[in-house]
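Much of what follows relies on a compact textual record of a protein's fold. An example makes this concrete, so a full record is given next.
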Amino acid sequence: MSNLRISLLLATLCVAGTVHAVANAPAVATTAPDLDLAIAYYSKTVTPDGVTRESRYEETMLRRPGHVWSARVLPAHAAPHKHEEGGHRHGLNHIVMPRHVINAGKTPRLEFVDAKEKAVIAIPATEFDNVNFDGSWDRAFYLLDPRLLKTMAVTNRASSTPGAKWREREDNGVYQRVLWDEQRQIPVTIESGDKAGTFYRRVDVTARAGAAPAPWTKLQGYAQREFADFLD
């Protein structure tokens, strides 16, 4: 879901010098608080033949120690997803399902939850790419790798969020900008684009009031399924 798209926003940071800097940069030491978030995604591309394409979508996210739960915000008229039709099993439509990432050491555990079928679908690491997960716990938990911030210069760009500062980097006309909230340990805004105006991407993160109950504690009685069950 969302974490692969966010990592792509900063992918151009990983030039040779940046990779070396990230490898030697200390991880963020501040304890990250629990958060309930609303996340809005926007992207625009302009093709060489003059066609402008725009897309928008939203997600919610719950962050707790060792757990990240995210879900796409679907329109009221969205049709319910189905896995079977006429006795034939279809592929997993993971986009419309809540995603649960669990910190399990070097490689996090990943599962999707099908509330309609009351099933938890485990995804093996070998299939992460097929469900748009890059395998990084840090990028799931922080929405980007916080070590990348060490490679970005703090700027004087004004911020309306107390304690948040803009960090920026530009390389060959491509820029990345992150408004990082040090207290909450989460980006408020991520921007990426090029000065030629051929693409622009933006992620806006808003903290929601209150603390929702952890949905992963309410899965008792759900069937345990495997990703292979949904392959043709």
In short: Residues 2-29, 84-89 have pLDDT under 50 and may be disordered. The radius of gyration is 19 Å.
